[in-house]
Amino acid sequence: MRKERGGESHPPLMPSQAQQRSADPAIGERLAAIERILRTTAIAAFLLLIAWLLRDVLLLGFAAVLLACLLHGVASFLHRRTGIGIDWTLAFVLVALAALFGGLIWWRGTDMISQAQQLTDRLSEQVARLWQMASNDAWGAGISGSVQRSIESVTNGLPGLATGVVTSTLGIGGSLLVVGVTAICLAASPRVYVNGSLRLLPRGWRPRGHEVLRETGQALRHWCLGQFIDMLVVTLLIGTGLFLLGVPLALTLALIAGLFNFVPYIGALVGAVPAILVALAQSSTLAMWVAVLFLVVQTIEGNLIAPIVQKRTGTLPPALTIVSQTVLGTLFGVLGLILATPFMAMLLVAVRMIYVETVLEGAPKGDAPKEDAPHEASPGSEAAPG
């Protein structure tokens, strides 16, 4: 027994007890780290589950953001050129779009409906003819049988699907209405939604968050601009070529090809199918020339027009574009396929700014956004409403 101050004696601590006391803080830190990891994992899993359950709503929301970026970009362009308030330029853009579509329906609405019906009948006849030709061949009969069984399995599920669509709250028309109204609200007051989104972040992260929203908005707007130019050029070239070749319903087929060109690569292939089938009803030679026309137009668009447009609007690597279309199309269907490329454009910007520049390279946080500032003239600063 050894003497302590004050005359009291205490037995010496055993080595195991001393080591246990010194190890207690380390064990506590490890347990706290494990707890943080488990809590973060649980929150992430919960958010992923909610996102999966609300995937259709989230896709519609992203479509509204995409349309809002385009509307606000055009309104900001007019604002810079004319000096008129951005609210007035946005109202002008909306009125001009309404007048354009209304005038088109009033002028050519009946003819468009008639041509659409004719196109449907021609495509149905041609598909039935090709199906009959394939069924007469031994090799084609096996393929046609497999396709027919697949169609029957899908058809059997259509009544339930149709019932769900009819009895759903929104439906297709309601979804389009929600996207349009939401896009107008976002484009009219983007700062409200930007600042509201930034308030969800810790105060120190808000300046960088504002930069990320600004850059993603610019990326979405530039992508929309580039695709619109591509669609316009493809529509004009295909329409002119089909007219010169004497293909029936040339204007309708050109509009279909231009609309499908909104989806890169896959849309170009799908958009050529109706024109080739209609031409095949006339002659196989005409169908061959139509296929050559689409090949030439897509070659010109991909090697001449697209590089010029992408100098200003930016581009995506083809492999990432195709992979994103495959993944989102598989997970979310047609709407996921349509929105896959702009979503990947936004995701690339976000990953570059949040992870590469901020985490890996330690980019500066930037200046915090002023929440009470008036509308800025620059469209990029408000183009990503959240």
Give a quick summary of the entry.
The protein has 386 residues and is mainly alpha-helical. 81% of the residues lie in helices and 1% in strands.
Note the topology:
Layout: E1 2-3, E2 9-10, H1 15-53, H2 55-82, H3 86-135, H4 138-156, H5 158-167, H6 171-188, H7 190-198, H8 206-245, H9 250-260, H10 266-282, H11 284-313, H12 318-360
Antiparallel strand pairs: 1-2
Helix pairs in contact: 2-3, 2-6, 2-8, 2-12, 3-4, 3-10, 8-9, 8-11, 8-12, 9-10, 10-11
Q: What is the number of beta strands?
A: 2
Number of helices: 12
Shape: globular
Distance between the termini: 72 Å
The stretches of 5 or more residues where confidence is low (pLDDT under 50) are 150-169, 367-386
Instruction: Estimate percent helicity.
Output: over 70%
Helix-strand sequence = EEHHHHHHHHHHHH
Gyration radius, to the nearest Å?
30 Å
In order across it, which strands form the biggest sheet?
1-2
Biggest sheet, open or closed, and with what strands and sense?
A: 2 strands, antiparallel
The total domain count is: 1
Average pLDDT score: 78
**Percent strand:** under 5%
The chain-level structural class is mainly alpha
